[in-house]
Amino acid sequence: MKINAGLTGVLAGLGLLGSLGAPLQVSAQETTTLKVVGHAALKMLDPITTTAYITRNHGYFIYDTLFAVDANFEPQPQMVKEWSVSDDGMTYTFTLRDGLAFHDGAPVTAEDAVASVRRWAARDLTGIRMMKAAKEFVAVDDRTFRLVLAEPFGAVIDALAKPSSLVPFIMPKRIAETSPTEQIRDYIGSGPFRFVVDEFQPGVKAVYVRNEAYVPRDEPASGLAGGKIARVDRVEYLSFPDQQTAANALTKGEVDILENIYADTVGQLTGVDGVEVQKLKSSNVPTMRLNWLQPPFDNVKVRQAVLHAVSQTDFMDAQIGDPDLYTICGAMFGCGTPLATEDGAIQTAVTPDYAGAKALLKEAGYKGEKVVVLHPTDLASLSAVAPMTVQALRQIGMTVEMQSMDWATFLQRRNKKDPVDQGGWSVAYGSWNMLDLTSPLSNLNLDTRGPDGYVGWSADETLAGLKDAFAAASDPAEKKRLAAAIQARAYELVFYIPLGTYANVSAHRTGVDPLIDSPVQVYWGIAKH
Amino acid sequence: MLRLIALRLAMSVPVVLVVVTLVFLLVRLTGDPATVLAGDLASPEVIAAITAQLGLDKSLPHQYGIWIFDLLRGDFGVSIASHQSVIGEIVGRLEPTLVLATASIIVTVALAVPMGVIAARRHNSWADRLLMLFSVLGFSIPGFVLAYIFILCFSLWLDLLPVQGYVSPFDDPWGSLRHLVLPTLTLSVFFMSLIARVARASILEILSEDFVRTARAKGVPERVILWKHALRNAAIPIVTVIGIGIGMLISGVVVTESVFNLPGVGRLTIDAILARDYPVVQGVIIFFSLAYVSINLLIDIAYILIDPRIRY
Fold first, then answer.
1. ipTM confidence score
2. What is the pTM of this model?
């Protein structure tokens, strides 16, 4: 009797759970909502004051650009209808397309474009270089603006089409006049989606609705260029603190798309009913930076020894594991991009050259100075490269200490120029979307400004001269030749070491279109069926 | 009683101040929000400009003075990352945390005390052993492991409950209940185990006292002895451990909110620490400190109500 009563209770309990799990009767909704889990938490909304990729992605929802790169990384006009360049290459004239309007209904004018580019150019390396070469940058009339150069600068269109951090998004002039170091408070763009301010929960959820007034280009979407057609009414851009929870939510159909999944989640989601895994055009490159200011890496021979001790295969096996997801490639400007070359690369060999490395160390007179390797533990895209470096350096007889820390502490430590016994460092890393490396002008790892420049504080007059020549060049063949020379010189002095290239992978529910073949994840052109 | 409450509240002010001062110093030792804010690729000039804009180029005493002055005016500052007011951020995240914590406390107390009573009453029986086995397991398994086990069983295999997310009970009570079941169970199991064990031990100890033997000798029914005499006398340690449990619940909330993707104060705390969002970190620490102080106060009041001999 007691058993029966207990059994009844258990069954009743299961019944209650069953009813809890039963799908609720929901009235048919006409609004199509795409639920996307972004690759990080979106908190900052100004794509000019931060280089965070999640804020860049937010930018592509609501802003449009004057030019944009297509699937082949070639710049194409986007907001610009037509443009011309004078015979001497010193005057560029641009005309905006018809029908462009901001989300508040105001037309997009040439003054808006000029103010937006100026604000962007105050923060972006390529922009800074472009404006340094400029004599005049003004609106001619409502739809026409002009850039007059004081010195040759062949990368004007490339700069205006810059696809990743930072992107020259076009905002209304009143917003674009905000100081470039101060965050904007008004999120009016002219892109294919509108941002719903009232529904924004920083770090939790951002909501975008279709901009009904958007006039797309006639060409089909290609990369970040072409016709941007919003095929869903609403996108909820969500942040999940835990990737396992996000994968479970996708499996159960509680969300539609995971923008980016880690290599180990790829295996978990592959073959799951109702889920499709998608290898994206977008890829990442982890890079190693050596500290040029302090021993032992103030000695070029020691830096070269490290280059010889590195094998991209080892690093990619440790970080990614699945050979289908990574590529071994020494191109500093990105595999498969217009400037890709293998000049100078040696870390692409299957096995590292330990003997060569040891010989270089001996030649350099290395006396066992301590090498401090910074290890960011909470950044999944970099967590395995530091232990791999330690192993490689110990293999060639260096004295190595690995110091582990979270990403925020890592960023602060990486800025310290002091000797290692005073809180400084010897080896640090960067994790880059390949888009940020494609040009010698925007590739920050090729900074030649020494102590005033990017962490690692590399300096070289020859390389600086080559970059100036590249900036001035407009002939594609000449640009390619100069890029190869820049890469060869950068490898010779070991400006940085690319540790391999791995694909970003996304996953979506069946019935949701795959992400378009773009180097940045964007959500136009995607429908739910 | 009112005097006690006023006194305890007054005593809590220096406690909160010390805690928050420590947090003020600690967060500044471990990372620079300007670096995080500007992003990985920012130049030193930009980082310096942002540092100046945030006032972080000033000396620590200067920053502390400004912060305390603002705090006394009720101004908790503005989030460095989102530019929203700290109070607004915390209030915006309060509901999921309060709903989860309340549900967990109710479930825990409602189940743990009867479990302890049953285990004590049926001392050394199979029921006692089963309940204690449950409590050992519940006490030993980390919350996040339990959460994933629950998700695997009830969401992915049995398809009974959602994997994640929060629905407000004010918008959709039924949907809210469905989303709350697993996080509440995850949070409750640990505290249930703790409280059940303490309740069992306390009641067993009381049941061996002379006055219980006397009551039995006088023919007082066992049910009356258990519920009226034993439980009341065993209540002080049980209430104490419930208080400790509620305090510990706060740290449990942080993990549970992350695993079940609940947008509560726990998640806000983690995000703010990782982003070195000083004003938000300081704000949530004040919030949690006040919560601890309030819980302790309530426990003290409960002591007096349970045992009028207790005076402070």
1. 0.82
2. 0.86
